[in-house]
Amino acid sequence: MIDRQLLSILRAALTESPAVALLGPRQVGKTTLAMALSAECPSIYLDLESRQDQAKLAEPEQYLAEHADKLVILDEIQRVPDLFQSLRGLIDSGRRNGKRYGRFLLLGSASIDLLKQSSESLAGRIRHLELAPIHAGEAGTERQDALWLRGGFPESLLAPTDAASLRWRLDFIRTYLERDVPMLGPRIPAETLRRLWTMLAHHQGGLLNAAAFARALAVDGKTVASYLDLLVDLLLVRRLPPWHSNAGKRLVKSPKVYVRDTGLVHALLGIDNREALLSHPVAGASFETLAIESLIAAAPAGTAANFYRTAVGAEIDLVLTVPGRKPWAIEVKRSLAPKLERGFHHACMDIEPEKRWVVYGGSETWPIAADVFAVSLPTLCGKLSAMGDEAGR
Predict the structure, then answer these.
(1) Is residue 1 part of a domain?
(2) Regarding predicted confidence, which is higher, 203 or 116?
């Protein structure tokens, strides 16, 4: 089992809040993480996709009150949205009786609806955490190549062969399109959504141009926006917003769009092995995705993530702003001998970062220019994780 950085954060959150919502796409390891936590304290687990477990909650106040001395883990909580009102009453009752923290751990696969439901019903009573796929700091140096090719979903990363991993990812995509998406609301044609998902993979790391996608799909721009919102809601796609604090520059205003897991990118594009990946035009953007998603996942809670680009070409791939600190400027280069372009230096003059890093494909840390260091992805993930540990103490 790969140790997950979020476990200690989740453990701490349950000592400070009566309820914690753990969000993440399906099969990312939420239940495994919850089971590891349940082994440390008295707990009860209910899978709300199970009719038997749903039946136990026919009278939720009565059933859950009987387990007030345990951590109650409710998996796929978005399936029973009416439960939030009951949890509110139980939390308030527990507070009056001295049971203030660590009551409920809620696991969910879709973020917007769950956040809205829980925020409205459990305001001031719940903390939200997101579990991303395994990142470079968690996978270890020996799994970095596999992580890039297969992505960070545990079943895919740890599959016995590349072929088995690809079959798992193709099944994962099919399940989302044919089962999970129809359950979330209005009927969306699975083939249209697959085409958009595949187009996003081809466009990996590019600026969002909804009009171009709409023309290619023969739908209107609002429909593309709603489909994209759904993929973002399912935590499968990221819209990385542009940096906007420097009002004196003509800055790019469109977000960049990424399919968040590189393994899904490669499955959508039919890339089945490392040699095929290295020769594919998406290789550079795919490595950039791995770096960006790993660094965001490793960063302390509350860290803002942006990119920086001006109309004249000054650019930084990732700007991370940890609360209370100046930003870090991070450029991503897959090469073992990375070279910085003039635009990076001009961009750094604009935002005046605290640190300047170049994430590259090697393993050593060395100065590449004045105040700029080349660093491996796992090393920089470790530095960000350490900042989070310091903030938590």
Answers:
(1) no
(2) 203
